[in-house]
Amino acid sequence: MNADHTAQLRLLDLQAADTALAQLNHRRLTLPELAALAEREQRGVDLHNEAIDVETRLADIAEDQRRLENEVDTVRTRETRDEQRLQGGGLPAKELEGLQHELTSLKRRQSTLEDELLEVMEQREEAENSLAGINAKRAALEAETADLSAARDAAFGEIDTAAAGRTAERALVASELPDDLLALYEKAREHSGGVGAAMLRQRRCEGCHIELSGSELASVRAAEPDVVVRCDNCRRILVRTAESGL
Ligand SMILES: [Zn+2]
Predict the structure, then answer these.
(1) Residue 200 Cα to ligand 1 middle (Å)
(2) Which residues are bridge partners to 204 per DSSP?
(3) How far apart are CA 211 and CA 224, in angstroms?
(4) If you measure from the C-alpha of residue 230 to the centroid of ligand 1, how many angstroms do you get, rounded to a whole number?
(5) How far is the CA of 163 from the centre of ligand 1 (A)?
(6) Which residues on neighbouring strands pair with residue 205, listed in sequence order?
């Protein structure tokens, strides 16, 4: 294929724009903020689950507390009733003995229930503290997430602006190139990891970094300036400049 040598040189500008666009895209996909946000999101899910666990525990504790308090009330009512009967006097000895016996066991029961209630209230305090801790972590996480999102959006904005500039530049260069040369470049680029045109610098292909052999150099030297030369090794378009060492 033949193409004006100036057009061949412009391929290097096109390649520079394409390389810059690929780098910008890579930067967009690998922004550290994205990984940091994904990690925060996972932590958010974990904290949410932890909070649900503690809330469930608190509901169970509240249920225990209610049950114990009701039982304490029942025992107390019965104690009061028994004490009133005792104070009323005039009871047969056997009934008196039974009543005193019941009062003793009611007091014992009362004491056990109070201990249990105390324990439940301690559990409740512990769970409430734990929930407060989780909520504080969630609030801090939310603030971090907001900061990271803002940083990500700022980086996206920067990248998009740079990409828009490069895209316009690329379109301009591409519009100047003959269609067949552009098509060859696109094809080579597709097959060579995004690099379709490379400079021949000091007898080395800048695409694959292999130095041209003596016979390859001889044929490149012999080729007219408007002949489109390709690297024998990587098949990229080799652009000859004053630095080619020919
Ligand atoms: Zn090469």
Answers:
(1) 9
(2) 201, 211
(3) 21
(4) 8
(5) 27
(6) 200
pLDDT for res 246: 87
- With a CB cutoff of 8 Å and minimum separation 6, the contacts of 85 are 91, 99
Say which DSSP state 199 is in.
E
CB–CB of 118/72 below 8 Å? no
Q: Which residue has the tokens 């890579």?
A: 26
Q: What is the pTM of this model?
A: 0.79
Residue with tokens 């019965």: 78
Q: How far is the CA of 90 from the centre of ligand 1 (A)?
A: 118
Tell me the CA–centroid distance for residue 187 and ligand 1, in Å.
Answer: 15
Nearest partner of 16 among 236, 166, 207, 226, judged by Cα: 166
Q: How far is the CA of 1 from the centre of ligand 1 (A)?
A: 18
Structure-token pair, residue 87: 């104070």
Q: Using one digit for the tens of pLDDT, what is the confidence trace for 228-241?
A: 999 999 999 999 99
pLDDT digits (tens, 9 = 90+) for 146-192: 999 999 999 999 999 999 999 999 999 999 999 999 999 999 999 99
Q: How far apart are CA 204 and CA 246, in angstroms?
A: 10
